[in-house]
Design goal:
Elements (H helix, E strand, L loop, with lengths): L3 E6 L3 H10 L7 E7 L2 H11 L3 E5 L7 H11 L4 E6 L4 H9 L4 E4 L4 H34 L3 H12 L4 H10 L8 E11 L7 H14 L5 E7 L2 E8 L1 H20 L5 E7 L9 H12 L10 E3 L26 H9 L5 H11 L7 H21 L4 H7 L12 H38 L7 H8 L3 H12 L3 H19 L4 H7 L5 H12 L3 H5 L7
């Protein structure tokens, strides 16, 4: 580690200069950064220099050492204090202990005593920094990939199946702070232009966005399905519009700065001031989100925007309209990437945008045949067998009534998405089975990662992360850690291998980090577990 910075505060110049000059600072991993004759002069210097260690006398004019230590430790909790004093009065020592000073040395302080104190403090700083680094690494590993419990909570939250009390209780259990005066929902998806799923560029942009959102307490991000995320925006009501706009711009900026062109869409809900209103807010955002199929060249949709003349339904001149002008890719894109939950909203908005079509029998029939044909074509592309399509997609009745158009469209799209999802489930089960087998063979490899498993499974890391948590109920990191900890427990109880050897055997480069993770997971060190201080098997 870098040298620890040391500052001396002592009113006796002979003592102060003696301490400064008699210690070969660099030899013992220290850097002398400054000194002062009293606490009053020392305080602004300490605030600027931010030393790791303060060596201070107790009795000084203007501001004594205890007063200085109290202020400094409140402002810089990690600073280490060495008190030096010519008094052996227990009261001084007691006050020093209450302040949490590291050492209490009586004058005259010898070189050996000071070096011993500095070496002890330096070692403690090294250990504390190591623990901070381990904690940061641990948190990053588990934050980088979603926790399944968070996703399940938000799914229930937006579908409106939780009471307000249940929302607060579950959020508290998950350490989520949902308290605010106002809320909004923003839904977004990012895909490669050439593919229906995530490619590397889309995955990289998405991961960058996830990490970016985590830095802001006003935004809580969660996955709503395999290809889309939602952001819960929370804050004061008068700032909610600004926060929602900031959220959209963050997504837009990340996508526009990508190295390749991406298909990206964002939808913003209608704000609410109640947690109980979040399901409605999400439904508003989802309805706006459905417009991406009808206006694929636009990227951002809001409920207010869709009320404008540009998006408002207009009467259809059925004599002049050619059915071929209706882009079949609208239906095909929805069958390929839409969700069952979006079907009603998409159908309503799609038919509304063609207001008047239901009343023209010939065009109505032509439209519905086109919808069925394109749904079938897309299902074939998705690998669904023709017999299953024929059985599940209803034929078009030439006499279908105008009042049945919406119902038919909802039925055919709903059935098409169900067929697609069944086929996707088969493929995803095969993918996860393959990934789990690969992990079982390689989880003790220190270099195993989501990326390496994704390469072995021939899919993108982001898509694998989503599938994994959905199918397994744990994130990739949680699953790997669970397997490693289970193996560690076996080795601790059934072999005489040292903790460091076990760490290497199960895939940890750093034995101390293994011990840190083990204690986090089991509440005891590996040695304590081996000695029977935990009943967990």
């Amino acid at each position: 580690m870098e040298s620890i910075k040391v500052f001396i505060c002592e009113d006796e110049s002979i003592v102060r200069e003696g301490l400064r000059d008699m210690i070969p600072w660099e030899k013992y991993g220290c850097e002398f950064v400054g000194d002062a004759p009293d606490g009053e002069m020392a305080l602004p210097m300490i605030r600027e220099l931010k030393p790791d260690v303060l060596i201070t006398d107790i009795t000084m004019p203007f501001m004594d050492g205890l007063s200085l230590s109290k202020i400094v430790t409140s402002e810089q909790p990690d600073i280490k204090v060495i008190i030096i004093s010519g008094y052996s009065d227990f009261e001084y020592a007691r006050q020093a202990i209450e302040l949490g000073v590291e050492q209490y040395l009586l004058k005259p302080v010898t070189k050996a005593d000071m070096i011993k104190a500095l070496e002890g403090i330096r070692q403690k700083i090294i250990e504390e920094n190591e623990q901070k680094n381990y904690l940061s690494k641990y948190e990053q590993e588990f934050k980088k990939f979603e926790r399944f419990s968070h996703r399940a909570f938000f799914e229930r939250l937006v579908e409106g199946s939780l009471s307000v009390q249940e929302i607060y209780e579950q959020a508290n259990n998950l350490h989520l702070n949902l308290s605010a005066n106002g809320y909004n929902m923003v839904i977004f998806t990012i895909r490669d232009v050439q593919q229906s799923g995530y490619a590397d560029d889309a995955a990289n942009v998405t991961e960058s966005l996830l990490n970016h959102f985590m830095q802001y307490p006003d935004f809580i991000i969660f996955r709503c399905n395999l290809l889309s995320y939602a952001v819960l925006v929370k804050g004061d009501q008068d700032r909610l519009a600004q926060l929602s706009d900031r959220c959209v711009k963050m997504i837009q900026q990340h996508c526009e700065e990508a190295s390749s062109a991406l298909d990206w869409y964002v939808a913003v809900g209608v704000p609410t001031n109640r947690l109980s209103g979040l399901s409605g807010c999400y439904a508003d955002a989802n309805r706006a989100f459905a417009y991406r199929y009808m206006f694929p060249d636009r990227h951002v949709f809001t409920s207010e925007m869709l009320k404008s003349e540009q998006y408002a339904p207009t009467a259809v001149n059925t004599n002049a309209m050619d059915a071929g002008k209706l882009d079949p890719m609208i239906i095909r894109n929805f069958v390929r990437t839409g969700t069952l939950a979006e079907t009603d909203a998409f159908t309503d908005e799609y038919i509304t945008s063609l207001d008047g079509v239901e009343n023209a029998m010939l065009f109505r029939y032509y439209l519905l045949v086109s919808i069925r044909v394109n749904a079938e074509l897309e299902l074939r592309d998705e690998g669904v067998a023709l017999p299953e399509i024929a059985v599940s997609l209803p034929a078009v009745d030439v006499n279908i009534g105008a009042d049945n158009v919406r119902g038919y469209l909802k039925e055919i799209l709903g059935n098409a998405i169900k067929l697609r999802d069944v086929e996707a489930q088969k493929r995803s089960s095969d993918i996860i089975d393959s990934a789990l087998k690969y992990i079982d063979r390689n989880y003790t490899d220190e270099n195993i990662s989501l990326d390496s498993v994704a390469v072995a499974s021939n899919i993108s890391a982001n898509y694998l992360s989503a599938l994994f948590s959905q199918k397994v109920g744990l994130s990739f990191v949680e699953y790997i850690t669970k397997k490693r900890m289970a193996r560690a427990r076996q080795l601790l109880r059934n072999t005489s291998k040292r903790s460091g050897e076990i760490a290497v055997d199960i895939g940890y480069k750093d034995p101390r980090y293994f011990s840190f993770v083990f204690k986090k997971k089991h509440g005891c060190t590996p040695s304590q577990y081996r000695n029977g201080e935990s009943d967990e098997e």
